Write the structure tokens for this entry.
Amino acid sequence: MSVVISVEKISKKFDLHGTQSWKTLRDTLTGFFQRSSKREEKVLWALRDVSFNVYEGEILGIVGHNGAGKSTLLKILSRIIKPTSGVARIRGRIGTLLEVGTGFHQELSGRENIFLNGAILGMKRKEIEKKLDEIIAFAEMENFIDEPVKFYSSGMFMRLAFSVAAHLDAEILLLDEVLAVGDVNFQHKCLDKMKEIMNQGRTILFVSHNMSAVTRLCHRAILLEKGRIVAEGDTREVVKTYLGSDWRTRFDREWENYVQAPQSEVVRLKRMRIINKDRQTSGSIAINEPVGVEITYEVLEDGHILIPNFHFFTQDWYQIFAIQDVAGKWRVTPRQKGTYVTTAWLNGNLFNEGRFFVEVAISSHSPNRVHFRTNEPVSFEIFEIPNNFYTRGDYMGHIPGVLRPLAQWETECCQFRMKSSS
């Protein structure tokens, strides 16, 4: 396979606290009269000596926590910003979908922005016109395509932006959190479209916190931490490293800064934690005791039926199951503004030994919509108890599998008498 992207020792430095390279007249005069006060310069290295290759027809996953440098890397590859040092060589036409709104003109309609994005990619008007109906239909925007995009919701914006990026003829796609906004059905459409693009031999760089999507789509992945590549190779091994790092193995997450919290305009997550049978926060649960997953969230807008969802994964990021809050009146009753606490209890003697991860989402039905899904999971460890005669008996070896449920066993001794003939 030929190399279509070659990144060689890319570094990117950002100046902090107003240490800009230019100076105003006031800055110059202030510096002249205050020679003794030397301003301390502070910098942030978003990327440091990053090198890798991307091959034609490959979907490369890029993972890492917030602030690791993922989006900065894609902006450099899409020529939005320049690296401080290093070089990126790209062979082919690039289409990008970074933050919601990147490359869109707020005053133009959706239809006009399709032509604008195509022109930026270097496509002729006739080429765009051939794909126009397909782009609009995929985005499900027929009724709004001639409205200015400044009136679009974040979900509408993302649907149109993804559809434009996926349908225009770019050999390389750079996608940053394309599954973070929108309803479940459209997320599945995005995944199916990405598989179709891959089968066409096009190349994708896929940045996402959705580990299940990364492991399904990508054969190879890169893990960034503090601007450096710390793991590269088989996707499942990279994801396992990502989830096993110390900052990930947390059983209690709380968002004091509401801006950074997972949210929509309807609901915002405040806290998620693992609790034991005494409702105490705990990351280690005995195999025979119940596991509780508790979330605290704030409803910001009246009149919506909100359904908490908990998704359970192994350490290798295989999804085991997902559960929804279908109990009681909340399934059919719109919630009023306020703070709510929802807890799901799973019986003891369900999980096998090992570490498990939980992602949280809140959705609405009719129409289906995911308001948010957490970027970073909480985790818990299931440990064996001494003299466990319930699911282990007197066997002390390894018991395979993800689950080890407590079953009801019945055994009868059936004796048959045989008649002898003389």
About this structure: Residues 3-27+41-244 form a domain with the Rossmann fold fold (CATH 3.40.50.300). The chain is about 20% helix and 30% strand. The chain has two domains: 3-27+41-244, 252-383. The chain has a mean pLDDT of 84.
